[in-house]
Design goal:
Blueprint lengths: L1 H29 L1 H6 L17 H46 L6 H11 L6
Amino acid sequence: MAFFSWWYGEGWGRQVALTTRRLNGLLDFFSFDLLLRTLFAPFRQISAGHVEGSLGVQWRAFVDRLVSRFIGAMVRTAVLIAGIVALIFSSLFSICLIGVWPLLPLVPVIGILLSLTGWVPWR
């Protein structure tokens, strides 16, 4: 009886807590807010500041910064999409796990009943 009281009480609560931690870990890992705030920031460009010099030097620095921002936006967008996909799959898995959790103790009973009726899965 203690098994069932744990399974439907503390065990189910632990599964919900683990699910919450898993989803929070994904949110922290992908840092969606940071990626959105820096979406058009230069990508790995150390000297993205003001450049002094001739018009040609300034134009080249402008184009370098523009290309760097474009690459940064593409990389960050790809990471955002990957994070959203991972979050969706993890959420669906978690919903299924929490939904199936109360039914798992019944699986052996169902298996025994099916075997007594003569049902075989490979026929």
